[in-house]
Amino acid sequence: MNQIYNCNSDEVRLSILKVLTYFRIFSHPLKLQEIALLCSVSEKIAEQSLQVLIADEIVYCFDKHFTTCKEVAQLAELRFVKEAEAEKYFAKLKKYARLLSTFPFVRGIAVSGSLSKGVMNPDGDIDYFIITKPGRLWICRTSMVLFKKLFLFNSKKYFCVNYFVDSKNLQIRDENIFTATEFIHLLPVFEKDGVLADFVFQNEWVNKFYQRKPDWNKSYMVKGNSRVRSLLEFFFSYLFLIRLNEFVIA
Predict the structure, then answer these.
(1) Which range marks the domain in which residue 15 is found?
(2) What is the rounded distance in angstroms from the CA atom of residue 131 to the CA atom of residue 124?
């Protein structure tokens, strides 16, 4: 991690304010370590800058949680509740990651959304970011959607596949603060052929918003069942669905 600011710099305080203001939109106070990582500074520098902002009543703190909202106590308590809820989802994450990794033409899977930030609403769901083999995105997506409808009764609680790219088109087109924030918080759960490293390389535009590379937690990575996936890919290769995929993307 590159430390790009001096401890007394106005720039670091401005950077902290930008980060806290963004997360205030989601009623999500941040911890010191999170602020330091997002602003690419040491925790010591971040803490010194936060103390200045707190003294000026621009930032508020409760139980080591920071936000620009005066209702920091309520937001911190709400985060505790969401963190406890997230643990229930983390307990089942590897199970569903293995399941998703068996689908044909899957090359990479990561969790985005609330769970990637360690929180979850009681009525929330796990959002997955899927990377597919080139030219097979629509087959992969359709097979997952059909599985959800037929076998999970359209429940998306643990199976919300909402973003797809293929390994030849890894650059995200929406270059904005929301996408950049989701990018650096992605929680990888499956990878084949180093596709996630390629994904990072293809999206260096994120540096416009965050001066650091993703520091991804890989403790939830699964190997997946390559035999099942290969068998399904072989099966699909002899069906008209390959031509249908080419027709859809044409």
Answers:
(1) 10-70
(2) 23
Residue after which a domain boundary falls, among 70, 103, 118: 70
| Pairwise CA distance, residues 118 & 85, whole Å | 9
Q: What pLDDT shows up at residue 4?
A: 45
Do residues 29 and 95 share a domain?
no
Give the contacts of 226 (CB within 8 A, at least 6 positions apart).
Answer: none
Q: What is the dihedral of CA 169, 173, 175, 176, to 10 degrees?
A: -120
On the 0-12 / 13-18 / 19+ scale of CB atoms within 10 A, 123 is exposed
Q: Which phi and psi (to 5°) does residue 131 adopt?
A: -110, 130
Instruction: Report if residue 16 sits inside a domain.
Output: yes
Pair 35, 19: CB distance under 8 Å: yes
Same domain, 39 and 90: no
**pLDDT reported for residue 5:** 45
C-alpha 126/C-alpha 147 separation (Å) is 16
Q: Is this model's pTM higher than 0.90 or not? A: no
Where the chain has pLDDT below 70, the residues are 1-8, 238-250
Instruction: Tell me the torsion sign for CA atoms 72, 20, 37, 185.
Output: positive
Q: Could you give the CA distance from residue 93 to residue 135 in angstroms, rounded to a whole number?
A: 28
- Res 203: pLDDT: 95
Q: 212 is written with which tokens?
A: 């650091």
Any idea what DSSP says for residue 176? Answer: S
Strand partners, 246: none
**pLDDT score recorded for residue 83:** 98
Could you report the per-residue pLDDT of 92-102, keeping only the tens digit for each?
999 999 999 99
How far apart, in Å, are the Cα atoms of 125 and each of 28, 99, 113, 144? 17, 16, 9, 16
Contact between 140 and 105 under an 8 Å Cβ cutoff? The reply is: yes
